[in-house]
From TrEMBL:
UniProt-listed CDD domains: PBP2_Bug_TTT
Provenance organism: Virgibacillus halodenitrificans (Bacillus halodenitrificans)
SUPFAM superfamilies: Periplasmic binding protein-like II
UniProtKB keywords: Signal
Protein name as annotated: Tripartite tricarboxylate transporter substrate binding protein
Signal peptide, first to last residue: 1-21
Length: 335
């Protein structure tokens, strides 16, 4: 009798233990698979208000909040300085936090390569790329060049006689996007005269004749083209862009220059983010990319859709680093 009682108690113990273990495993699995933010999210634009990073961050936050794709509040914070380096250092200080994200583009590859930041894309957690933007090369309305080939022919003869201005530092985006197209056209890129406009007066310099060419983003040229003060000689997209004014901008490729430059923009988190938080943001950014509301914003700013998940983004960034380093080595600007 005692033996039977012992067996019965042992059987019950095994059942209870198994059930508890199963419940614990199930609960743990649910928690892991369904991580969600429990407090507001901070989205950092590593630059001042009004630029591409700021606009991308604010438009993403706006659609997230208005559609409820992410239910927690998302606040955009500007951290300007160092071409992005100040903002990157700030986010790096929030190790593993799923509540401190930032928007980035090619400078996160360029700036570390030319020695202006200790942080690069490898030091963060890529979450998703969202859009593709493109460069535009503009000149004054009365400039003698009407297309890129005319400009580059003069640059081949005497590259130092033509001054190119951009808002980024030498070796960063506005410089490199011009250099990449000029190189494909046969210009000696080591002799290109590039000046950095950190004060945002590049357009003024173009209009008063202090510089000859303005290397900038496509969206920054639209209003001035409408006003009749500048003309765009070419853009770096694969095909012509859609939209009023934009559709009139010829690509470098259609002018026989076999090169493009994509100003991709996406979102990152701090180093060492949990895999479940990464999956959460991947899914949310994919929903954002597929939403009608964000499609309208892309159309408004002349952006193309370019969604990549975390793993795809990392592979893309590693390849970008290799290609850009080759260009910077040629310009003697890599560190």
């Amino acid at each position: 009798m005692k033996k039977l009682l012992f067996v019965f108690i042992l059987f019950c113990f095994v059942l209870v233990t198994t059930a508890c273990a199963s419940e614990s495993k199930e609960t743990s699995g649910t928690d892991e698979k369904n991580w969600e933010p429990e407090k507001p999210i901070e989205l950092v634009a590593p630059a001042g208000a009004g630029g591409g990073w700021d606009t991308t961050a604010r438009m993403a936050a706006k659609v997230f909040n208005e559609t409820g794709i992410i239910e927690q509040d998302i606040g955009v914070v500007n951290k300007p300085g160092g071409g992005g380096a100040v903002g990157w250092a700030y986010v790096a200080g929030h190790d593993a936090s799923p509540y401190n994200l930032f928007v980035a583009s090619p400078p996160i590859v360029l700036i570390p390569l030319n020695g202006q930041s200790e942080y690069g894309h490898e030091d963060f957690t890529p979450l998703a790329n969202m859009i593709a933007d493109y460069a535009a090369f503009a000149v004054a309305k009365d400039a003698k060049w009407d297309n890129l080939n005319e400009l580059f022919e003069d640059m081949k003869k005497d590259p130092e006689s033509i001054t190119v201005v951009g808002t980024s530092s030498p070796g960063s985006m506005d410089h490199i996007q011009f250099v990449q197209i000029a190189k494909a056209a046969g210009v000696d890129i080591s002799k290109i005269k590039y000046v950095s406009d950190q004060d945002g007066v590049g357009l003024t310099q173009l209009l008063n004749g202090s510089v000859d060419v303005f290397s900038t983003g496509v969206s920054e040229t639209v209003e001035q083209v409408k006003a009749g003060t500048i003309k765009v000689l070419g853009v770096t997209a694969e095909e012509r862009l859609e939209g009023e004014v934009l559709e009139d901008f010829p690509t470098a490729k259609e002018q026989g220059i076999d090169a493009t430059f994509v100003n991709w923009r996406g979102f990152f988190g701090p180093p060492n983010m949990d895999e479940n938080a990464i999956k959460y943001y991947e899914e949310k950014f994919k929903k954002l990319s597929e939403s009608e509301e964000f499609a309208e914003i892309r159309k408004q700013y002349g952006w193309d859709e370019m969604y990549m998940n975390s793993e795809e983004y990392k592979t893309f960034l590693d390849k970008q680093k290799e290609e850009i380093k080759t260009l910077l080595d040629e310009l003697n600007l890599s560190k």
